[in-house]
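Minutes, project check-in

Agenda point 3 was the complex the collaborators sent over. CS summarized: three entities, 1179 residues total, and the question is how they sit relative to each other. Sequences were read into the notes so everyone works from the same version.
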Amino acid sequence: MIQRREFNKLAALAAASAVAQARAQQSSPGAKLATNDEITWDKAPCRFCGTGCHVRVGVKNGRVVAIEGDQLAEVNKGLLCVKGYHVGLALYGKDRLTQPLLRRNGVLEPISWEEAIETIAQRIQAAPEQFAIYGSGQWTIPEGYAANKFIKGGLSSNHIDPNARICMASAVTGFLSVYGVDEPAGCYDDLDKCDVLIMWGNNMAEMHPVLFSRVIDRRTRGEKVTLIDIGTRRTRTTDFSDHYLEFRPHSDLAIMNGIAHLLIKQNAFDAKFVDKFCNFRQSPKDPNATPTAPLLGDAMSFDDYKAALEPYTPEHVEKLSGVTAEKIRMLADLFANKDLRITSTWCMGFNQHSRGTNANRLCHGIHLLSGHFGRPGDAPTSLTGQPSACGTAREVGTMCHFLPGGRLIANEHDRHEAEKIWNVPEGRISPEIGHHTVLMWEKFCTPADKGGDIQTLWVQVTNPGQSLPNLHKLFKAKAGQPDKFLIVSDVYRTATTELADLVLPSAMWVEKNGMYGNSERRTQQWFRMVKPPGEARDDAWQMIAVARRLHDLGHPGMKDKDGRFLFSLKNDKGEEVPVWEWPRYYDMNVDKALFEEYRLFSRYKHKDLAPYDEYVKARGLRWPVVQQPDGAWRETKFRFSEFDDPYVKKGAEIQFYHSVTKDDKALIWFAPAEKAAEEPDAEFPFWLCTGRVLEHWHTGSMTRRIPQLHAAMPHSYVEMHPEDAREHGFANGESIVVKTRRGELKLPVWIDGRGHPPRGSLFIPFFDERLMCNDITLGDIDPISKEPDYKKCAATVARATAAP
Amino acid sequence: MPDEPKSKRVESGLIVGGIIALVAVSGYFVGLRQTNSAIAMTRAVAVVKHDTHRDLTGATNVPVAVRYIDQDWSRDGPNAQWRNSLVDFQQPAASAPADAAPVAMEVKLAALQARASRRAYDGAPPTVPHPIMQDSSAACLACHAQGLQVKDRFASKISHPTFGGSCTQCHVSSRGAFSSADAAVFAAALTENSFQGAEAPPNGPRAWPGAPPTVPHRTLMRSDCMSCHGPKGLFALRTPHPERQSCTQCHVPAAANDQRQFMPAPPLDAVKKTDTSSASAPPANPPPNP
Amino acid sequence: MLTVGLLVSLDSPSPHVMDRLKAHPAMTVGEVTDRWLPVAVEADDDESCREYHDWIAAQPGVAFIDVVHVNFEETDADSNPSISP
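CS then shared the predicted structure for the full assembly.
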């Protein structure tokens, strides 16, 4: 029995030793010190989210050594978030891709750039119509422009779509169907002026922290601003909010209808504003009548609108949404008060929504109905998640149905204009809309004999192997299909390179010249400051080099009307530079040449851009940037408002000059509250929501390589209500299994952690490559924007059985 | 006129109140010190005897113990253990390094090294060396608003009080978010990072021996000098004259760190041209044709 | 018989404290990690537990004690003290 006693003693000692070691593990991931000499500083927009903060980049001996918030930048006024402060470290993960890799016998082996470019060119030459490009809101503007011109103006194909489709396509269709033209009328200045900020399913404290601070720091200065958090779980944003309205997932449509109902019932809407500036619309009876039918809708009278809203009494909305009738009345009273300035912000809550377009429309609708529009501080503003989702995806039009500058593939006039600017023969641009994101990947993952008409797919600057929904169907099914060829240009190995046949090492951020466009229409520019590692090269160069190789192989599309190469670029002296030869690429500013060409597209929809050199001087300028009689270039903060927008007629007050109805009026839409595509049931009783965390940016391929960010948030988790956890007998930190109809995922449960989901609801962040929540998300898309819903599906939980 | 006596009354009232408060506070601390020494003595000398076999059957008014699972652990937060040693929370008098010999360069470099271990580069927001409350900035400010010393550990005072809202926006814990059973599986970093951050310069040049040293580092987000150089900063970095309040009266940025130089040559015209506060001129472009 | 696992936080890892703890017949001392010292204590009842606890707390250099493990198991050794080590 001595043994037993000895065992007890050892057990006690082991327990104490374990704690001692845990306590001792306080090591901070500090970086090694450099010597301190000359540091040169230059400006650049941050590489991460769509806020568009400017950073100052400190460079010494050809390496980035420091980052500072740029005090001259209006967006962030010297402040950054933890990702921004560490953005320089994203360049220096030790496993940067430094040479092209080709998969041979299942293994990625180094090859030369010549071989790589030749391989791509041969595949495209063999079947150009089966080639597609999957791009990104992280493409710089010139990169996206080059890709767009290459495939639409060169290959006569529209199979190009960016990851922005899975991020803000619903915001685009929202803007288009309300104002007739994309992107917010307001800007971040609204955040300085608003009395009330309503965040619709928008955890700004973590996702747009600098903008959030811009608001809450007003309180430090003694200003009063009321924050209203309308969400499906408590977050850090809730901590700062005056009101928290927790709604049943997908019932945001009901809440907004409830507000509109009360505004009309109480005769508290802005009749003058509505009469002068608005028409009413509803979903079309026949959405398939024309390609644009769902976007244009059917006209309805004010009386019809009123009648349609009739059922949405506060009590009925309470039943649908779980938000009390009293709180619905509070919101309506705020909107009824014209003395207040109200700004609404939203991001993925509205956009990644199987009724995302309608959610966007209704939010614009309550602002228009109440007249909370067009004055500083009165604005419905959509926030974006990527640094150039607006600039590259939306403005350059790197989508399957767009052409640059807000033009549409479906519109013959628009196509001919683009052909003119590109100097290509009439009819070069295909009138057929290409595959949108989800369809593109479905076609790529489907065998050719079963209708999968995409055989070669080139991915640049994004990680669809992790970020697409329902990955088993839309990405992993590619495995084992040798005739499908996946090309990936990236800076690190990712979930996407796992299945890549050809991997191209790219230059990133300040390793190349670049331009981004942020959420508030601000176009930004930066110069190359350091050299990329190894053989990594610019994404735009890769595209141009392939185009040149196709040109040499005799592809007719690579020549313009006059027989010149599509990308025959001239330097400032007017001399042509063979930029497709890498050593010559920086003999001229390719960005400037491409941008000046792209700029010709921008006037059509009054998204006027200034010459490149103006952006060199500024910390970004918000379009339309209009030249003044004295030659100066003036940006526009508040679109459609006479006091600021030079395109509004004198005396008009407000003019929606791209109005869908061609009468300078915006559209107030009615859309019914509907059920989600998949709702919890007996078998799968939980709502599952996915999203982001402060420390990691999207799929984490950069931030997970930054020691400080990794240490703060080393792995993903599932958030759960403590009562639910108790019922299942889960301890905090225990690994559990989350199951949906698409698959299952084992990961640690976090109870009473950073976010607090209500009972019957789960939350999983998507940054962790090892714990990919998109294996189990739904992937049902909004019928109009084709954007998937990542925020809602039915799930169940179970105790994990096997070891991790 | 009638205001004057009133304000005087208020003033004298304040003074009296202040004195009372002062006496009360010092009395409190004196008492605290006595209590502490009493505790120390008890620990060293006597062992308290406990009645371990009290029969509680039939007793009333016995509080029902809270079930372990019902304990609201989240309320205590990740730093709950601090409460276990409240006795340690006495605030030592600010040390006066003025009497001490000048700090040796090795000591200073060691202090800078300690500082650097929590920063990616000089000027980076420091990471937090302890677990944090995940959903409250108030928890951070409880200790860091004014700074706090507990034995040999210092909670530094916030150096940028005007940005006092969302602490976790910039400062993240180096100790992970929460402890999961599989933490070890996930702890491994994806890769090493070869970034080498700019170093904090050890000291700023002086115009002549005896001149006040210039500020060797940049000062953005470091507007409160006393955060690092005050009595709760690292010993080697403390000012020898904490009683003087206006630091920048004598200490100016070193030429190499003059932040005005970081502004690009002529931003002025860009600012002027984009200023929208003045009435907008009509566009040079043709008006829209709706 | 109680077996208790304690985590002793030291002001600094001093060999003096560790020697004193090692010399105590009821205590088994583990390996010190940084400034944390694991200690296993065997005690007859909770009264002597408290005495040991206070004794450790009174040692110079000891900053704090955490109780991380307690085992109340009765072993045969309790009824036969002659064979305890």
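Noted in discussion: The CA atoms of residues 6 and 15 of chain C lie 18 Å apart.
Follow-up: revisit at the next meeting once the mutant set is ready.
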